[in-house]
């Protein structure tokens, strides 16, 4: 019931309220595995992608969000599932492998999986170097990669704001990228790096952001 409410009730309400400008939605293949690779501006980017993409999209979500107690905890877990979240532990190498496997399963089943190659949201507005997990998924599943650029989403819930605000937002979907030419070479780190860089360049072309060829530190990481 909740997935239907999200798709046919909540989705239209959100779109009517925020009136997002959506470009290139026709670039999303109507069937088959699709990997959406997006820049990351704000915590609510996932919701924006969910409500502007015609197909159901799956994302990774922190496992602790799904383990709440009581009625509230169960409702939260079901709501997140309806929004497309997949619970995954974070913080260690095994968690990273589990995350990739969760995405791979969605894609091998012919679904749509979204990923933020930067690994965390950009705190300075620039586009940072992508992690190669996006390439590993694309190469191992044969999924088409659709680059996505988000604009203005950081204005929906600025730092310190508890309640989402109205903001002018835009989502731009690029033409799908096909990496079939690298079939069978997903174990090559050089190929994964090359594919990742190609995906990041496509996002850069869509977003117009300044590019930084270094990984973005997570907000909770201390500077070394």
Nutshell version of this structure?
37% of the residues lie in helices and 17% in strands. It has 224 residues and is α/β, with parallel strands linked by helices.
Structure overview:
The protein is α/β, with parallel strands linked by helices and 224 residues long. Helix content is 37%, strand content 17%. It is built from 6 helices and 9 strands, in the order H-E-E-H-E-H-E-H-E-E-H-E-E-H-E. The chain has helices spanning 2-18, 45-52, 70-82, 93-108, 133-141, 189-207; strands at 21-23, 34-38, 57-62, 85-88, 112-115, 127-128, 144-151, 170-173, 211-212. The strands form 2 sheets. A 7-stranded mixed β-sheet has the order 1-8-7-2-5-3-4, sandwiched between helices. Strands 6-9 form a two-stranded parallel sheet. Helix 1 packs across helix 3. The radius of gyration is 17 Å and the shape is globular. The relative contact order is 0.20. Residues 34-153 form the Phospholipid/glycerol acyltransferase domain. Keywords: Acyltransferase, Transferase. One of its GO terms (molecular function) is acyltransferase activity. This is 1-acyl-sn-glycerol-3-phosphate acyltransferase. InterPro entries: Plipid/glycerol_acylTrfase.
